[in-house]
Each structure stands twice: as structure tokens, then as C-alpha cells.
Amino acid sequence: MMRQFLISVALLLILIACNNKKHKVPGEKGGDGEDGEQKEYTINTSINPNNACNNLFLDSSTLSDFFTNDSVSDDIADQMRAFYYARNFEFAWFAPDGITEQGREFWNLNSYEVSSLKDSSFFLKALNKRMPDITTADSMSITPGDKSIIKTELMLSEAFMKFMTKDGKQTSTDDLMKYVPAKKEDIMQSANEVLSDQDGTQNEDAKKAFGLLKEQLKKYYDIAKKGGWQSIAYAHKKLKKGSSSALLPLIKKRLQITGELWQTDTTIVFNDMLDSAVKSFQAGLGYTTDGIITDSLIKDMNIPVQNRIAQLLVNINRARWMPEYTSGRLIVANIPEYALHVYENKQKAFDMNVVVGKEGSGTVIFTGNLTEIVFSPYWNIPPSIVRKEIKPKMDEDPGYLQKEGMEVTGESNGLPIVRQLPGPKNSLGRVKFLFHNSYNIYFHDTPAKNLFNKDKRAYSHGCIRLADPVKMANYLLQDNQLWTPGKIDSAMNNTKEKYVSLKNAVPVIITYYTAWVDETGRLNLRDDIYNHDAAAAAKMFTGQ
Questions:
Q1: Which residues of the chain fall below pLDDT 70?
Q2: CB 509, CB 333: distance < 8 Å
Q3: For residue range 476-497, what is the model confidence (pLDDT) as tens digits?
Q4: For position 123, what pLDDT does the model report?
């Protein structure tokens, strides 16, 4: 009986080993080693449609066809083959619903480096023709047999391999897979792997952001291991310094766990120590630091620790794609932060609050070059806004256009072409800043100054409104002696539109970070206003 049992156990272990075994496949193009033997590549058969991040798979023969038809170098072909074998031929840059976050992040980083560093060695011109349509599409439905998408997928991977080796460095397949995950994992398992990793980021700016977030991940991982924090009931009233409530001991315990409150306090009194802790918690969430506890703030306190860990992991993945800040000027706008940051020679010059696109007409994540300032601009109103907002008001009130300083300049497909004249009612305000892109997004002034008093500022149709456009205009033109502050003010209050070209283009990066560590060492967490975190988490983690 014991002998039969041992045989059964042995057979079971063999079966498990066979199911997990990595099959070795001879290389094709670029497959000859120095000794004349063919190279071999390991297929990771543990990745399947049930646990794949993107759940689209290539036919293995497409790799060989691509290498031959596109004359891919042997070195790049070797790297691509190892990369796709490690993914069990799962797509890296596309999922059934369109381009992935990693696809967008790589394309933005690639475009930034090409335009800022003037390095085109890893840039494929054919991709530049394909990507605008893909990245601007409202929605996509992709099948594994879509030849155009397959071509784009492999071209992106070729560019990725060139990008990762542009400085003569060789990045291992394991490190490449960290940039472009292939397999869903448990959140805590994924956190443990990141914490155990020695990091594989490409530049010092990415390393710094990555490392700071990793420190916070360790803190929240340890909190989760100890059981997290207790959910707090809503107060249904505002709590502030001097008040008392039976909820305050729980709130104090919650803030003590994450470090805003430094001492143990079990009293029911809202004291100075709690006031300071609440303000610190509010600052980390981007709220006005008034020290008042509302039900909305309690809702933020109640977000489970595992959700915060997932948020940190998603943003750690984004940090891998952070570009290196070059010398000269750079503008970085972070959508969930409702702010932009201006850098000069890698040093912060100033920050500015902004209004971004509301959900449904969200500001797109991309890279561009700011080249022109337009004073007293016309607003050429997009057809979608004319159809949904302007035309119904025109039909209701014949004098609407005149009241709003607008005029009809023509007609297209049965819809009037409408523009708003320069002036105090112009929705672009007195100036706009152009960084040419496929999304028709730019910075601009606004007459609706009251929106900057709000903590959450997603109200625009997609463009980014600046809290202090005068400061931006003066900053960008400070090296142009012809444009004094007085002349800028005059141009901004004119009835005629005026274009001014910058002597040197300024790179603009539009980002989407809902978690980051600022210069003071504070962890900042923001709402996932466009559900990008949720979409990324659904692809990265099990149980989402």
C-alpha cells in the first residue's frame, strides 16, 4: 500500500513539473551563437488567457515574418524573441480594448527623448504615422488577427528594444518584463516582488521617483501585514478643533497608523495635536488644509490599505517610464494634481494650479513642444461643442451669439462654424500657449477664475487652463527683449489676435500620477479622476 502511495505521489509531482516546465525552442534569425550552435529561447507557458494582463496572443510565426520583412538586426531580433517567448507570445502594447497604458507611456517617453535629446536612433518614422490615430481613438476593438495592429505591436517592441539599449546597455528580459507586465498577480505578491527588486529604471529622475514610492510601498505593505486600519462610521456633521465625538479615538488611531499623528491619544476631544494631524492628512490628498473632518475626509480614511498598495504599484509602474529632465526649460503638468511644474536646468522654477478636462472630455496624456504664444486669441469652437452646446442655445435665443461675442464664419456638414472673438468673454481668456499635437490640446487663460478656488478642478473640455497665464507669458518671453511686461499686457488686452514664436521650443509633458512623493518627503495621493488607475489595476492584479 505504501509503495503504491509513493508511486502516486511521484507521478503527481512529475505531472506538476511537466505543466510548469519551460519549453526551449531553437532560435531562427539571429540564432547562431559564437560556436555555431543555435540559441534557445524559453517559452513561459504559465501565462495563459486566464491570467494574462492583455489577453491577446501572437502567432509565433509572425515574429519570423516581421524580422525578415522589416530587416530587423540580429541583436534586436534576439531580444524581441526572448521578450515574446517570456510572455508566451502575449501582446505587450495592446489589449482587446486598445492600446495599453504601457503603450502610451512608452510612446510618450520615446517621443520626448526624440524631440528633446534629438536622438532618433531608436525611433521608427513609420510608427509616427500610425500612433496618432491609435492614441486619439475614443475606443478600439482589437482581435488577435488584426494585421495592422500586429504590425504596430511589433514595431513598438522593436523601438522599445532600441530604446533600452541606446546607451550601449543591455537590459535583461526579466527587467524588460517589469516595464511591461504579462501576468496578473495578487496585490500583496506583486508588492513583495517590487520590494525585493533591485530596480531596473533607465535614468536618475526615474530612479528617484521609483525609489521614493518604493519606500512608501514598504510602509503600506507593513501596515497591511499588521491588519490595516478599521473602517470609521460617518459623523454626518463637521468635526473641528474644540469639538468632541465618540468617533475621534478611531480617527486618531487611523492617523497614527499612517504617521500623521505621532502620539497615542484615545480621548474624544479634538485637540491641537489632532488638528495638526488632520491638516497633514489633507495636504497629502491635495485638499485645503482647514483641519475640518468631513464625511468626505472620513471616506478617504476608509479606503482599504490594499487599495492604496495597488495605487502605489500602478504609479511605481508609471515611474519606470519617467523621462530624464534635460537642461533648459521643461513644463510638466500632472492631471490628477491639477497643477503644472516649470523646471529650468533641472531645478524647479515655479508651480501653478490648473483646470483640466472633465471626465468624458479628459485631458490626454502626451508629450509636445511649446513653440507659440497667441495673445488675444479667437476661440475656434470644436464641432462637437457647437453641436452639443452652442447650436441648441442659438435655436433657443437668436441673440445668443452676439451676447457671447461669437460669430458664424461658415458651415460644414450642416453645422455652423462658430468662433468666439477676442475679448472679456472669450473662453480662452487673453492668451493661449500652443504645443502642436494630434489632440488639439493647449494651455490657456480663462475668465472663470473662481474654479481655481476649488480643490478638485476637472471642468474644461480637454485643454488646460492656467491660474496665472501672465506669469507664464512673461517667463516664456523673458529672453526676448522685444516683449516687455508692458507690451505683453497690451497684447493680452487687444481686439486683434497676435502670434509670437518662441526662440527655443519648451518641452511639455502631460502626466497622470495619482501617487508621488514631493520635495518635502510627503506622500501625495489623488483621486483617479479618469479611471486610469482602475483600468491598469484590472490588468495587473487578480481579483480586480
A1: 1-38, 114-124, 199-202, 360-362
A2: yes
A3: 999 999 999 999 999 999 999 9
A4: 55
What single letter denotes the amino acid at residue 38? Q
DSSP string, 303-352: S-HHHHHHHHHHHHHHHTTPPPPPSSEEEEEEGGGTEEEEEETTEEEEEE
Helical spans, DSSP H, in 357-502:
383-385, 391-396, 400-403, 469-476, 485-492
Kindly report the pTM of this predicted structure: 0.90
**What are the cell numbers at 504?**
527655443
| Cβ contacts of 27 within 8 Å, gap of 6 or more | 38, 39, 40, 41, 78, 81
For residue 62, count other CB atoms closer than 10 A to its CB. Answer: 17
User: Where do the H-state alpha helices sit in 147-229?
Assistant: 147-164, 173-179, 187-196, 204-225
Report CA-CA distances (Å) from 131 to 20, 151, 155, 181: 37, 12, 11, 21
Helix (H) or strand (E) holding 296: helix 295-301
Distances (CA, A) of 475 to 251, 350, 480, 530: 44, 10, 10, 31
CA 321 to CA 383: how far, in whole Å? 35
Q: Which residues contact 435 (CB under 8 A, 6 or more apart)?
A: 368, 369, 370, 371, 442, 443, 506, 508
Q: CB neighbours of 137 closer than 8 A, spacing ≥ 6?
A: 98
pLDDT tens-digit profile of 409-457? 999 988 999 999 999 999 999 999 999 887 888 999 999 999 999 999 9
- Active-site residues, by number, are 444, 463
Q: How far apart are CA 141 and CA 272, in angstroms?
A: 55
**At CA 55, angle to CA 53 and CA 57, rounded to 5?**
120
Sequence letter at residue 67: F
What is the Cα–Cα distance from 306 to 313, expressed in whole angstroms? 10
- 38 forms beta bridges with 32
Could you tell me which of 5, 83, 98 has the C-alpha nearest to residue 47?
Answer: 83
For the chain, report the end-to-end CA distance as a whole number of angstroms: 45
Using DSSP, state whether 375 is helix, strand or coil. strand
Q: Where do we find the cell 491588519?
A: 227
**Distances from the Cα of 354 to the Cαs of 111, 290, 452, in angstroms?**
24, 21, 7
